[in-house]
Amino acid sequence: MRTTRLLGLLTALSLTALATAACGKGGSPPTKGPAAGRLPVYRVAQGFELPESGTWRKAKNRGRFVVGAKEDQPYLGEKDPATGRYSGFDIEIAKMVSASLGLDPKSISFKTIASANRETALQNGQIDYYVGTYTINDNRKKLVGFGGPYYMAGQGLLVRHDEEDIKGPKDLDGKRVCSAAGSTPYQRIQKDYPKATLVAYDTYSVCVDNLLTYQVDAVTTDDAILIGYAAKVPDELKVVGRSFSEEPYGIGVPRGDDTLRFAIDDALAARERDGDWKKAYDATLGLSGVPAPKPPAIDRYPAS
Ligand code: GLU
To answer: According to the UniProt entry, where is the signal peptide (predicted)?
Structure first.
């Protein structure tokens, strides 16, 4: 027990050291993919009006969108603790949408919202829309609306580098597996792999700390998220096996504001056509080494 604790502490310390050495300012993971092209500058639509959307009117009056996001997911949604600035693929998606809806993306006010709190945040008007690895599914559609999808992820597993027993979800029997409360990966393990011991935290980064300190044996969530944690400490962590679900990422909007939802669908379609989507991907998630996929078809489902 003592040895494990000590080892854990040392691992955590080396994580910090490695992160500082390899990742530079802001702690973002190293680059493997295309050279970091400059982030696209999104042209703000002039004279754009969407008066039928209550959410849009509110944002227009205050002069900016308030967007929910993640702050601890490398390549996707990360907040620089020094500057308070958010960056990553989800953040770029949020920005291109804001520009298409006529509001300067530079003025967006980002708010970190954990997986379990997304629906409430949209329902009580705390945020106008949400962009943060948010899987579209029928249960959630009863509570919120979804623009998109704009990306297709899949559930995967992250383990310590020397782990040899866990190669896929079938190997999780009797193992301690960590995921975020309220997430689809958590729910899938609970339902399909009941012999695994599930541990839940608010965020995946806390799960990763627990993995590095030997408190859990695996972390499960979307491959796109796990790849970022593994890249931070490649000597300590690895993503194993194939992904075992489909997680289409959508932009969460208040349920019933279909005008806003359709405008977001149009915005995404236009940014996919004009190359901004790909530029944004290449400059963020593409740095993980995974080349830009074809974005999934937008699901413009009928008004509720
Ligand atoms: N995409 C999954 C979900 O929406 C996992 C990632 C997350 O928790 O944001 O639940």
So the answer is: 1-21
> Given the structure tokens 């339902």, which residue do they identify?
191
Q: CA dihedral defined by 266, 269, 270, 275, rounded to 10 degrees?
A: 160
Architecture (CATH level 2) of domain 155-240: 3-Layer(aba) Sandwich (3.40)
* Minimum CA distance residue for ligand 1 atom 1: 135
Task: Express each pLDDT in 40-80 by its tens digit.
Answer: 999 999 999 999 999 999 999 999 999 999 999 999 999 99
The CB of 204 under 6 Å from ligand 1? The reply is no
In this prediction, residue 4 has a pLDDT band, given cuts at 50, 70 and 90, of very low
State the pTM of this model.
0.91
> Quick one: 44-153+248-288 is in which CATH superfamily?
Periplasmic binding protein-like II (3.40.190.10)
How far CA 284 is from CA of 138, 211, 281, in Å, comes to 29, 25, 5
